Amino acid sequence: QVQPTMFPLLVFQMVRTTLKHGVNISSSDAFISYGIILCGAFREPKRGREMAKAGELLLEKYEFRKSRATLGADGLTYFWTAPLLDTLLRKGHHLCVECVESRFIYAVEGLIYHWSKPLRDTLGPLHEGNRLGMECDDMESAGLNLNFYLSHTYFSGCQLGGDAVTEFIDRHIEYHGDDSQRVHISSELDIESYFLALKKLRGVEIQVDERDFDGILAVANETGNQTLHADIYLIQLDLKVFFGEWEEAAEMLNSAGNLHDAVLGMFAGVRWTILEALISIKATRFSKKILTSLKWRRRAYKAVRTVRGWARKKNPNVVHSLHLLEAELASVQGRRRKAESHYRDAIDTAWKNGFLQDQALSNELASLHFEGIGDAAQKSAHWESAIRCYSEWGATAKVEQLVAKLDGSYQLESWSQYIPYDSNDDEVHQRSQT
Fold it and tell me: Of 45, 92, 100, 171, whose Cβ has the fewest other Cβ atoms within 10 Å?
C-alpha cells in the first residue's frame, strides 16, 4: 500500500529511466504499470494494452523470465540501485519462472485487459496464474490471482457457487494446509467476503461465530488495506441494489466516501461507478428536499458520463450497464419510448455477453418502470423474466423476494421451480467455514 500520488510518479521515473539508459530487469514492470495508469486514470485502454504487450515482449526477448527473482517488496525500486547478483542473493528472493508468470498474469488480466476484452475471458489466465504462484510458493501472487478471479467471476454473472469456483477455492485452501502463516491475509478475507455475498443471495444464515462484513471491514481498517476496504463496500452496495434497498444504498454510498483511487485500474472500480450512477438516479426519486435531489442528479450525470466514455472506448463489459443507466435516466425524465428502448437493449446486451445478474436486474427495473406507467402486461412479463434470470444465477433469496411480491393470482407453489439449490445450503456453509 502506497500513497496514490506516489505510484504514478514512481512508474513515470521507471519508464523514463528505461528510455534513457536502456532495458533492464524491471523494465517490464515499468511498462505494465504504465499500462495500468493509462487504462485506469487516463481512460486509454488501447494504449494500456499496448504497454502490457510491450512488457510481455521484454520478458520474452531478453529472457528475463529465466533470470529474474521474485519481486517481493522491492519490485519497483531495488533493481534500479543494486547489482543484479546482490538482488538475486537477498533473503526471500529466488529464481523462478513461475513467479514471474504469476505476477505478470494478475497485473495484465486483473488491471489492464478487462478494459478491452470480455470479463469472462480473464478467468482462465487468472486460474493459471494462481496455479503458477502456488507451484513456486509465491503466496502473494497466487492470492492476488485468486482475488481477481473471484471478483471477475461474481461480476461477470457466472453461476453463484458453481463447481468451477468452489473447486478452485477448495484447492487453494487445501494447498495452504494447516500452516496459517502461508495464507495471504487478503486472499483469506476475499474468500470470506465472497461466501458472505453468496450466503446473502442464497438466503443462508450467517453463524454467530462467523465474521460478517463489518468484521472484515474492521480488519481492513486495522491493516490499512484500502483496496479491501473498498471491495467490502462495493459488495455490500451490490447486494443492496439487487435487493432493492435503495435508501440504505444511498446512505452507504455517502458514508463510503471517494474510493476510486483504492480500486484504480480494477473492474471493481468500473462496477463502483456503475452502482454510483444507478443509486444516484434512484436517490433523485425518493429525496424529499430539492437541493438534495439536485446533488444526487449531478452525481448521477457525472458517473453516467464516465460510463459513456468507457463505452466509447469499446469496453465490452459496460455496454449493457450503460443502456440500463440511460433507461433509468429517461424513466425519471418521463421519456417513455427512450426508456423502453434502452431497457430492451440492456436486457438483450446483458444476455448476449453473459451478465446474467444484470439481465435479471434490468428486467426487474423495467418491470417497475412499466408498473409506474400502468402497463400491467409488460410489468408481469419482465417480472417473470427477472425471476427466471435470478433463479438461473442462483440467487435463491432474491427469487423468494420477487415471488412474494407477485399479484395474488400467482401462487408461491407454482414458482417453486425457480428456487434452486435448497439442498446445497449446508454445503455453502461448510465451505465458508473451511
Answer: 92
